Amino acid sequence: MTVQHSSARRTPSVHLLKVQLEGMKPPVWRRLVVPSGIALGSLHDVIQVAFGWDDAHLHAFEDRSGGRYAPPGDFGVPAFDEDEAALADVLPRAGDRMDYTYDFGDDWLHRIAVEEVRPAQEGEGKRAVCTGGRRAMPAAEDLGGVWGLAELLQRYEDGERPRPVVVQDGGEDWVEYDGLRDEVLAGLYEEGFDPAAFDPAEVTRALAGVRLRRVPGTRRGVPAGMYRCGCGELHPLTGGAGQPADADREDAVGREDEEGALSDLLGVADVRLPAVRLPGEAELARAVRAVPAFMAAVRLGHWCGGGQGARTASAEGRSRETGGRELTPKGLLRPKLARQAVEEAELWRIDPEEWGDAEVRAARLAKIRSAGDMEVLDLPWEWALNCGFVEVDGARARAGADLPDEDDDAALLTAWQGAVAGAAAELSVALPLPAGPLGGLPQLWALADEVPPLVFLMLLTAYGLPEGEWLDVAGFTDGLEGLPEGPARMLVSALLAEQYEETAGVLELFGAAEREGGETGEGSALTLLLGGGGPDPLPAGRFRLTPLGRSGLHTLLVRVGIPAPVIGSLAEADARELLASLPSYASETDAAKEVADWLAARSAADAAVQVVDACVGTEPADALRRLEAPRVLAAVLETDTAGRAQQVLHKAAVSTVTGCSHAAASMLRRIGEPAEGEAAWGLEWMLVDGALPFARRGEQALRERLLTGPEDGPRPLGQVAERADDLWRAGHPHAGEVLGALADAVKPVDKALAKRLRKAAFKAGSAK
């Protein structure tokens, strides 16, 4: 794996959100694409338009940790200002969720789920867009919540028509109805309302008028007199101690989000990962079922869903669900229920040595008076909440929307992958800083800004290791090279050690990693901060990803747009993906098998057309595909008994499509059948083209490329030397850039050739 860092600005990103109105059957939801940096106040405006609300009542957002976001002054309790909280801060990654409630009388509850966070494509990010949804929304203001709306729609479906009353006022006749619901129902008939119809384009047109407000930077606001510490909770400031006020910190630090989206962090790095082999779904699902803590969280979710109750009418006449499990005012299971959960959901299986004996377990549980003191419940409960397997609604805990069926391999694996991917990103993307007052030091924030996501780079290295090999943690120095020796480097190393320990420990609990040795004591970073000094605290242990862990990390990589090829998965891929993935194959045998499987699904002529079409373009990625085209086209020609693939190549070679013509003519030269007029697409163009992607990677990468090849056979360096004086004539749009890079790369090994290439680069620049 090669990782290169750049100081380029981060690519703007967008959030793909699914917003569902809770309690409606059939469900009512909208899929929205919005800029990641918008304020939650703007997201409120978007939701209002997407669901047809009038913005006539109070509203609030609430995240999974209990943080509330609302307009300033709307509530008498501490709340974040929704116009100072960025969507990317509150919901930074795919899988994150929060609630949006509109009208605290009718309580229209909307569940917001992040389905994807990705770089913005051309034309995206200026306006909110609706890309999907289900069911139309009538004018539902003040109908009494989802129960009132459901009753109205049922009356409409039954064909019930309200009876109007004609009254006279000022000499004119007016039609009135017996209440708002009858009036809305009559309007549905007048407009020919179709509850099953939904047009995303119509919503998008309405959203075009919504002005999106962005939050400067990406730090979330904090209510006055409070600070958010490393545990994620809000704490009061006491006598000026503790975290600095939010405004002061922004002025002093002037930095963006402490973590940022993973796609943004790695969007400025050139990350190339080897193709890996992943087990099948059934094998991976079996591995998930062997992860005690995760399966305990799943069983706990089903147990919470097993406390079914009846629907009862409230004082206001609304129906409500009484199922689920009862909680204390502190949000814990009632002690009796907690004991039942340990037994009935078999939570004791996460630590059978400590809790496996039934009699001992019963005696220990009988002495515990609070679920908060029940250690065997803590981890499953925390995971069940974080994974969405349990949802807390008021004073009850119910089965969550993301709870998988234990017998469904695909659902179980998807839930596990989503959970471990989120944990890996949250724990390993940003260098952690100490909680409390020390974490607010501007010097520490500035230092952390200079350090790449070290543990995540470590995970990427482990991802590409051959099956069974270990990564030596102490020998991993990627990202530390730029830090000078001294206290700063020691501090980063200490923070990295603590971060590695936490990340590796969580991944081990997930069944995603194995580790040996290297455990460090807590507080090493704090000791250094206080002047304790000491040796380099980076642990000397080692770790490796399990096949299950590699699968989970692959899910995260794909989610954030990092190419991560899987061996044996390209048979149905298009030619562009095939050609782009082949350089990632460490084994020539695996690559050849991948090409053979791809060809087996196509005729020779179709395969030739697709490969040639995939060679279009003049950028580095296009050049990389052209470098792989000959191996695929050679395999195509071997299976081409009718000669149709050659006809495709001859036709393409004399076309004027840049890249396609060059790839086809080059292949025909290789087989000794040069196309008519092929001199127009000579070797000079292909030599420049082949060097382009390596020139972009740096001098060392280009030099290594020039020196590849057999000792007794032709090397790219020899071909460049032979045609150095004429390469500027190639007509390649990047000729000047590439020739200059070639001159720098060959100077240490051949100064005379470097001089010729420098002269050619000048001529290429003058010829434009």
- State the helix count: 30
Strand order of the largest sheet: 6-5-4-7-8-2-3-9
How big a fraction of the residues is strand? 5-15%
The pLDDT mean sits at: 78
Shape: globular
The rounded distance between the terminal residues' Cα atoms is 37 Å
| Largest sheet: number of strands, sense, barrel closure | 8 strands, mixed
SS-based class: alpha+beta
Radius of gyration, in angstroms, nearest whole number: 31 Å
User: How much helix, percentage-wise, in residues?
Assistant: 40-55%
The total strand number stands at 22
Which residue ranges are poorly predicted, with pLDDT under 50 across at least 5 consecutive positions?
A: 1-10, 217-261, 308-322, 521-526, 532-536
Polypeptide structure, described:
There is one protein chain. By secondary structure, the chain is an alpha+beta fold. Helix content is 43%, strand content 13%. It has 30 helices and 22 strands. The protein has an 8-stranded mixed beta sheet. Helix 3 crosses helix 4 (180-191) and helix 29 packs antiparallel against helix 30. The longest helix is centred in the middle third of the chain and has 23 residues, at 487-509. Mean pLDDT is 78; it is low at 1-10, 217-261, 308-322, 521-526 and 532-536.
For the structure shown, list the relevant keywords.
single chain; 768 residues; alpha+beta; eight-stranded mixed sheet; three-stranded antiparallel sheet; globular; disordered N terminus
Please render the helix and strand layout as text.
Blueprint: E1 2-4, E2 13-21, E3 28-35, H1 40-51, E4 59-63, E5 68-70, E6 80-81, H2 87-90, E7 97-102, E8 108-119, E9 129-134, H3 145-157, E10 165-169, E11 172-176, H4 180-191, H5 200-207, E12 226-228, E13 234-236, H6 246-253, H7 262-267, E14 270-272, H8 281-289, H9 292-305, E15 311-313, E16 319-321, E17 325-326, H10 335-344, H11 352-355, H12 358-367, H13 375-387, E18 390-393, E19 396-399, H14 409-428, H15 442-450, H16 454-463, E20 471-472, H17 487-509, E21 513-516, H18 524-529, E22 542-545, H19 547-559, H20 575-581, H21 588-600, H22 604-613, H23 620-638, H24 644-653, H25 660-670, H26 683-697, H27 699-706, H28 716-723, H29 735-746, H30 751-766
Helix pairs in contact: 3-4, 8-14, 9-13, 14-17, 14-19, 22-23, 22-24, 23-26, 24-25, 26-27, 26-29, 27-29, 29-30
